[in-house]
């Protein structure tokens, strides 16, 4: 049975971290909100699934995953569930917890990216908070991007199995998510990202390696990969890149 991924159809957003894991593993899945109404899919079907009164574990917001009777919300929780099933995490409890911790740190970084263009309130347009966004983005560029990259660089350096992956000697969902973070920052903050990556060569190498993974490369070149745009988490506003 195919996994059902529920996320907004026109943005990469937080759902992209799940898509990358499913694509890298070659797992069968349905991207429900991107499907047609005639097939019982689309945004309306996603909203119905989210608001189903009989659902005892309702997700707060997309993304969420349905696997039979199991419903999981929150990107990190979805990947915690999928990791062992897709072969994208080590078998030991220690490796699974460490991979989950890495994913939670990546989630922190993603939240900070969002807050660079919406520092005051999510319901306000960017144009209503541009001055605050410029101030927030400056601190993010100068302090937070280098700090996150430096920490992941140290994780790669300390991996007993080698610096090619964050955990162990094989691709994990944390590798895929770090790839997506670097991709997104390269779109939203191209100048700041280039500067930070010069000081994090192992992060840059991991990013390049994931892009060359057979299934990931095929996905990136396919229409299934939604282009970055100014409705998602990673948005390119030149004034925020300094």
Write a brief structural summary.
This protein has nine helices and four strands; from the N terminus they run βαβαββααααααα. It has 242 residues and is α+β, with helices and mostly antiparallel strands. Strand 3 and strand 4 form a beta hairpin.
Give structural notes.
- By secondary structure, the protein is α+β, with helices and mostly antiparallel strands.
- It has 2 domains: 3-86, Glutaredoxin (3-Layer(aba) Sandwich); 93-241, Up-down Bundle (Glutathione S-transferase Yfyf (Class Pi), Chain A, domain 2).
- The chain is built from 9 helices and 4 strands.
- The protein has a 4-stranded mixed sheet with strand order 2-1-3-4, with helices on one face.
- Strand 1 (3-6), helix 1 (15-25) and strand 2 (29-31) form a beta-alpha-beta unit.
- It is globular.
Low-confidence parts lasting 5 or more residues at pLDDT below 50?
none
Q: Mind telling me the C-alpha Rg?
A: 18 Å
The CATH topology of the largest domain is given as Glutathione S-transferase Yfyf (Class Pi), Chain A, domain 2
What is the mean pLDDT? 97
Q: Strands of the biggest beta sheet: in what spatial order?
A: 2-1-3-4
Query: What's the total number of strands?
Result: 4
* General shape: globular
Q: Please state the second-level CATH architecture of the largest domain.
A: Up-down Bundle
- Helix segment count? 9
> Can you give the helix content as a percent range?
40-55%
Biggest β-sheet, characterized? 4 strands, mixed
User: Given the helix and strand composition, which structural class is it?
Assistant: alpha+beta
């Amino acid at each position: 049975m195919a996994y059902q991924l529920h996320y907004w159809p026109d943005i990469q957003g937080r759902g992209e971290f799940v898509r990358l894991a499913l694509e890298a593993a070659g797992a069968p899945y349905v991207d429900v909100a991107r499907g047609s109404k005639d097939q019982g899919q689309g945004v309306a079907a996603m909203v119905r699934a989210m608001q189903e009164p009989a659902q005892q574990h309702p997700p707060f917001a997309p993304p969420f995953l349905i696997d039979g009777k199991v419903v999981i919300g929150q990107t990190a929780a979805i990947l915690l569930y999928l990791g062992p099933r897709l072969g994208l995490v080590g078998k030991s409890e220690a490796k699974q917890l460490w991979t989950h911790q890495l994913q939670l740190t990546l989630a922190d970084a993603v939240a900070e990216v969002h807050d660079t263009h919406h520092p005051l309130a999510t319901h306000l347009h960017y144009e209503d908070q541009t001055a605050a966004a410029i101030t927030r983005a400056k601190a993010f560029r100068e302090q937070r991007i280098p700090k996150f990259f430096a920490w992941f660089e140290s994780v790669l350096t300390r991996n007993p199995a080698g610096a090619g992956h964050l955990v162990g000697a094989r691709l994990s969902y944390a590798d895929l998510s770090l790839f997506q973070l670097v991709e997104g920052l390269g779109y939203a903050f191209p100048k700041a990202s280039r500067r930070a990556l010069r000081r994090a060569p192992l992060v840059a190498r991991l990013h390049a390696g994931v892009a060359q993974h057979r299934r990931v490369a095929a996905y990136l070149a396919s229409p299934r990969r939604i282009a970055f745009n100014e409705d998602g988490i990673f948005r390119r506003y030149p004034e925020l890149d300094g």
